Amino acid sequence: MHPLLPLCVFWLLPLALTLEEDSSLDCVPRRSVPYHRDNAHLFHEEGVFNYSTMLLREDLDLLLLGAREAVYALDLNDISKKLASVKWEVTQQQKDECKNKGKDPETECKNYIRILHQTEDNKMYVCGTNAFDPECDYMSYSKGKLTLEKKGEDGKGKCPFDPFQRYASIMVENNLYSATSMNFLGSEPVLMRSSPVSIRTEFKSSWLHEPNFVSMAQMPESYLSEEGDDDKVYLFFSESAVECDCYNKLLVSRVARVCKGDLGGRRTLQKKWTSFLKARLDCPVLESQLPYIIQDTYRSCDPQKHWKDCLFYAVFTPQSDTSDLSAVCAYRVSDISKVFAEGKYKTAVPVETSFVKWVMYSGEVPVPRPGACIDNEARKAGITQTLDIPDQTLQFIKDKPLMDQAIQPIGERPLLVRRGATFTRIIVNRVQAAGGEMYHVMFIGTEEGTMLKAVNYDGEMFIIEEVQLFQPPEPIKILKFSNVTGQLYAGSDYGAAQTPLATCGRSLSCMDCVLARDPYCGWDKAVGKCVFLSSSQRELIQSLKEGDASLCPDADPVKPMNRSIWPGGNLKLRCPSPSNLAKTSWERHGSPLTTSTRLQLLRDGLLILNATDSDTGRYRCLSVELSKADEYTTTVAEYQVSMATAGSGGRSVIPPQARMDGPSVAGLQVVVGLLLVSLLALLGWNFYKGHLPLPWNCRKKNREQSQETHEQGGLNASVKYQDALRPAPAEDKPLVLGANNGRNNNHTGEEAVAFSVEENDNPQATLPSLQYIDDESDI
Ligand SMILES: *[C@@H]1O[C@H](CO)[C@@H](O)[C@H](O)[C@H]1NC(C)=O
Ligand SMILES: *[C@@H]1O[C@H](CO)[C@@H](O)[C@H](O)[C@H]1NC(C)=O
Ligand SMILES: *[C@@H]1O[C@H](CO)[C@@H](O)[C@H](O)[C@H]1NC(C)=O
Ligand SMILES: *[C@@H]1O[C@H](CO)[C@@H](O)[C@H](O)[C@H]1NC(C)=O
């Protein structure tokens, strides 16, 4: 971004206030789960792409999935089972017209399904971009068939023309609320309700200024309302800030809301919202001078509680590419509605010749309050519908739809920050843990095709795991949750995936199960397994806030494995730690090993180079993980290493020099040298980008005591991230080294070095992390 941007002083002040010492950024997932087809049920149809619209029909046990030129009805319990589908393709004539208007016939001139809602007659309303000529239709499902009625309704203002443009929509009592652009050029953004009376926003930059629509939600605010208030529809989006006196374009996140009963004004604001109010939404992420940009929201309401206790969770990404942090912030609905109901307005005042400046309006505010819904007080004054609102109030709101005050998240800081992953979507699930307490678990989709599962335990950010759902990595474009099946559904350009809320079986030991701090999982002593909470009647061991594994029974001793080496040969002993937060160490005959020229301590194992007699003996790999409660040590692996003798054991060991394809030691040195160079480049790049050093982290204490592999700030995070994308160790694919830090893909080319190293028992095992060792000797 431009150096002049810091001139946006209005933004800097609140930021300065958030620069707190204890801010904890850059949270690392405890467990990284590489892609595996058992991670999720997948759906993909040959030749069909862009699976980015979903509708859950729990009443029919269906997941409706909208893709390019097709809608699918999938089994809600297993989406790999297709029950029905219907094609909705553009005609050749439509394609030609679209092409003649300068659009790409192979991408833009297709029909992308963008809207799927249930209607009150149990049918579905579906809209598509239809070759830059949006159209809507009704669809029904019966006797295993999906049928489009071919009504050909105009989709203008409901569905975008441009398939690459973001939009939002919601169906409330059979009325479609949509936020999109209503013309071919994409220059007329609207928030619109199509029925019973069609009303929309004004085409004024003070209402919507180059917006990027994100999501919509409704709030039943009339329920038990003493003021006789109306229900509301909220819209989340980002736009160019009109109120910033900057030289450059500055994006801000917004929340806007309208009243459901709005019919527009009589003379002023005819067929326009009289209740459109918007406010800036802040998610103050330390390190950034520019506001973060909202990407998705999730409404989380406790059915037992008042609507005022509902929360909106939102994911944010930076607007400049100098940062690669993503964040989650949560907002109280009551805080948002208070700003709209009581806050001050902003007003434009002319300064000098052609400029206006947006300042707080401190003059008199007309009655009834501009932008308010019709309530008891208005009714008393004879105003029973928005058509009765006096012009003075309407003129005010027409000119000043922006509130002065910005909305701050709960705690005035993010719930979660992660470096190197770009958040795209979020779902939040409430779960009652073994101790009876309720937790909000966040499921976050990323641009890299992974899903994060995270909880904020009393201010401590904790990412339980990061699971790779799509391989090759595809951005997650939609995320839904069904409380009937208890399953999550994710859509990407390539396909759709279904996963359970938890796969507790990934923890094989009690200690791992407890230290995972997953509210859905607990250790069942009777069966000796980590199990899903609601699937067990027995008392389970769980310690979410503390990670206290002291109740765990002693783990079974690990069985030592036999390995042989050849004089001058190389051997890798694997030690896959279950946790990224753990520190691993090695012992030989009970005394600790340190890195030397012939012994390399890797992230996932120990590498012995140019072996000699002295390398034989009993090796043990320990994993030490620190939780709030204690430090826990587990033995991950044990090896008995002996010198190979001719015909020893069943294992045949070939001398290294006899191997056809194994790299010689000299070759290895070349590789190490290359790595060193690429590492220095990476390090330099990280310094240049300002990723190093990083003063904060997620689990400060933990990280400080962590081993060399955990001490490198941004570099470390990026490498971890790379690890997350690594295929399962068992798959033994060569690894591409050179950390790719999230969004900035343009660096991979120069840093990528692919290689593999020989291992006695595992000829294709990879050597993923030599850079740590080199790096350590560097520091
Ligand atoms: C649709 O999917 C294809 C293939 O993955 C992708 O290249 C394209 O950008 C997607 N189009 C939209 C509008 O998302
Ligand atoms: C699922 O959620 C809906 C509201 O979203 C609620 O009415 C219903 O009772 C929930 N069902 C279950 C099984 O929790
Ligand atoms: C390892 O070797 C020892 C003695 O050579 C033998 O007793 C033991 O069974 C072997 N263990 C395995 C796992 O093969
Ligand atoms: C391997 O070790 C031997 C002695 O232990 C030494 O002479 C030789 O140079 C070493 N080879 C390499 C490639 O380091």
Automatic annotation (TrEMBL):
Domain (Ig-like) ranges: 553-637
GO BP terms: axon guidance; negative regulation of transcription by RNA polymerase II; neural crest cell migration; ossification involved in bone maturation; positive regulation of cell migration; semaphorin-plexin signaling pathway
Domain of life: Eukaryota
Compartment annotation: Membrane
Region span, Disordered: 730-749, 758-779
GO MF annotation terms: chemorepellent activity; semaphorin receptor binding
Cited SUPFAM superfamilies: Immunoglobulin (SSF48726), Plexin repeat (SSF103575), Sema domain (SSF101912)
Keywords: Developmental protein, Differentiation, Disulfide bond, Glycoprotein, Membrane, Neurogenesis, Signal, Transmembrane, Transmembrane helix
Record has Glycoprotein as a keyword: yes
Transmembrane feature ranges: 666-688
Sema domain mapped to chain residues: 30-501
Chief place where the protein resides: membrane
Keyword Transmembrane: yes
Matches recorded under Pfam families: PSI, Sema
GO cellular-component term (any): plasma membrane
Signal peptide coordinates: 1-18
Family, per entry: Belongs to the semaphorin family.
Protein name as it appears in the record: Semaphorin-1A
Gene: LOC115022032
